[in-house]
Amino acid sequence: MNKTERIRAFVELGNFLSQFSSKDAKRAEHKLNSAYYDKFEALLNRVSNENLWFTPLHVHASINGICTFLKEKELNEWLNRYSVSDKNTQIKVAVIMAGNIPMVGFHDMLSVLISGHSFIGKLSSKDNQLLNFVSKLLVEINSEFEELISFQSERLSGENKFDAIIATGSNNSARYFEAYFKKYDHIIRRNRNSVAVISGNETEEELEALGRDVFLYFGLGCRNVSKIYIPVGYNLVHLLDCWKNYSFVNDHNKYANNYDYQRSMFLMNRIEHLDTGFVLLNENTAITSPIGVVNYEYYSEINDLKINLNTNSELIQCIVGNEIPDAIPFGKAQEPELFDYADNVDTMEFLSQLKSK
User: Fold this and answer.
1) pLDDT tens digits, residue range 236-257?
2) Cα angle vertex 342, ends 83, 148, to 5°?
């Protein structure tokens, strides 16, 4: 299978998945529909019941994000930056995936396969069905993928005979990965969160869009904004008024339990905070915040803030706002482009430089 055939297969996959990119998406004409449409629809319902964090809204949002870059133009522009093999390689790449949001490991799976390598996936127990089904769709589109895709149910070890590994996990698991897989070419990812910088000149539409960066996936994703930097004297009440349309998150039992717990802890410990009834704002220098809480910190000079952000760059996945160079526009944190790599490590550069051993 050459590069063009790989691209064509993923474009076809995107065409099928686009039928599930929102609750209002319509069934279209597609060659996979007769065998797979009803099965995939049933699977989406099932995973939402089995993992209550994976609501239908969030599953659709994840699929929509994938579909935005599974297009011929985008894939070609992305791959043209690299020296990608035009033939299948003999290189086997293992990928240990997180399970915090639906199909969070899809980009790694795409990157490995479109590079011509073989993919060995270790799925999270929290998200162990969707990508497995996607692999079946790829095999149906091009049967050569059957020899290139496998999933490992047991813990990965040197006995699995792979050449390189990409692993995503907590800071604790990352230390284990670093030690255990040090003999392999590897990318090891740790905990990160995203931040937003407010200047005070934002429109109400931009502030409302920031709420999407905060609340989509209940804040569980590394690209979710967990901390906001605001100028001294900024009116936080105005910001919270712009988030009122996101109050529905507290209708979700698991989110509401987290919110109630954090609220109780703030009250018991007499920690000053702002409470909207569905999210708590806490003045805190930490970048990471618990579910149901958004940290905030005041700044006086934007240049000092830029230095602070640079110092803490290894803790930050992405920055949202208008004031920081290369920052992501409000509302777009969960819509990464193909070249928006996790932990700012160029996955495709890593994969394109692998050599058979």
Assistant:
1) 999 999 999 999 999 999 999 9
2) 55
* CATH assignment of 3-191, among 2.30.180.10, 3.40.605.10, 3.20.20.60, 1.10.3720.10: 3.40.605.10
Regarding beta strands 185-189 and 149-151, do their DSSP bridges make them parallel or antiparallel, or are they unpaired?
unpaired
What is the fold of 193-321?
A: Aldehyde Dehydrogenase; Chain A, domain 2 (3.40.309)
**Amino acid (one-letter) located at 30:** H
Query: In the chain, where does the domain assigned CATH 3.40.605.10 lie?
Result: 3-191
Model confidence over 71-83: pLDDT tens digits? 999 999 999 999 9
Domain with CATH 3.40.309.10 in the chain: 193-321
Angle value at C-alpha 204, between 198 and 210, nearest 5 degrees: 55
Q: What is the pLDDT of residues 187-214, one digit of tens each?
A: 999 999 999 999 999 999 999 999 999 9
- 3-state secondary structure (DSSP) of residue 108: helix
Which residues does 7 contact at the CB level (< 8 Å), separation at least 6? Answer: 72, 75, 76, 79, 114
H or E stretch at 211: helix 204-215
Spell out the long-range contacts of 75-81 with Cβ–Cβ below 8 A and sequence spacing 24 or more: 75/7, 75/10, 75/11, 75/114, 75/338, 76/7, 78/338, 78/339, 78/348, 79/3, 79/7, 79/114, 79/348, 81/339, 81/348
Q: Residues 199, 352: contact at Cβ < 8 Å?
A: no
Helix, strand, coil percentages, rounded to 5, for the chain: 45, 15, 40
* DSSP letter, residue 104: T
pTM for the predicted model, two decimal places: 0.94
